[in-house]
Write a structure and sequence with these properties.
The structure is a single chain. By secondary structure, the chain is of the alpha/beta class. It has 2 domains: about 5-95 and about 195-235, ATPase, nucleotide binding domain (Nucleotidyltransferase, domain 5, 2-Layer Sandwich), CATH 3.30.420.40; about 95-190, Nucleotidyltransferase, domain 5 (2-Layer Sandwich), CATH 3.30.420. Helices cover about 25% and strands about 25% of the residues. The chain has 6 helices and 10 strands; from the N terminus they run E-E-E-H-E-H-E-H-H-E-E-E-H-E-E-H. The strands form 2 sheets. The chain has a 5-stranded mixed β-sheet with strand order 3-2-1-4-5, sandwiched between helices. A hairpin with a 2-residue loop joins strand 2 and strand 3 (about 25-30).
Amino acid sequence: MALILNIETSTEVCSVVIARDGAVIQSRENLTGQNHAMMVTVFIRELLTDSNLTMEQLDAVAVSGGPGSYTGLRIGVSVAKGLCYASRLPLIAITSLEAMALHVINNHEKFHYPETGNPLFCPMIDARRMEVYTSFYDANGIQIRGIQADIIDNQSYLPFLENNTVLFFGNGAAKCRNAISHPNAIFIDGIITSAENMVPLAERDFKNQKFVDMAYYEPFYLKDFVATIPVKNIFKCIKF
């Protein structure tokens, strides 16, 4: 049993939760993006104050380790490492996609997905244009295909779709609706990367003493960071 601070910043969502024994006791969440660096520390301070807790009373810190936004992941992991170092707490890293998948799998009564047809669960995180970060999980939460960055077209995932009902969800799924039109494809709206989804996985890893090395841990970026120039600034960078 544990008291764990959960931090999720891998997408446009900035989400922080304190959970005791696998149950949420306090949470803060913002869905607008762009403010993670400012909001995450404010959320943590507010949660600790409202819960009458100090960092030293926690048992661990769990952080979303990707894949996802390069900048978002660096912010979340940097904050988590700093808290763990200062308070001498162990660090738990949670896969963003697995947390989303298990949230859907464990809430059949909410999402009403078909239990027949060997359902597979495909969480998707937007990776810009028609690319997504994704993986596949079976109904027991077992990963059956590793995490990849996929470019989506009308041929995507046909080997899975021919033999299974496949549920697509996450902030990368909406843009795939028109491309993936197979009758076995089902899209579920409203699934986000949330620290609340991390809670059961963080509790599991704490029980199993599955911690990462705080000094050397790096989030799973999947792709290298590429700096871009906003269109409005392109001509400012060109010398004639």
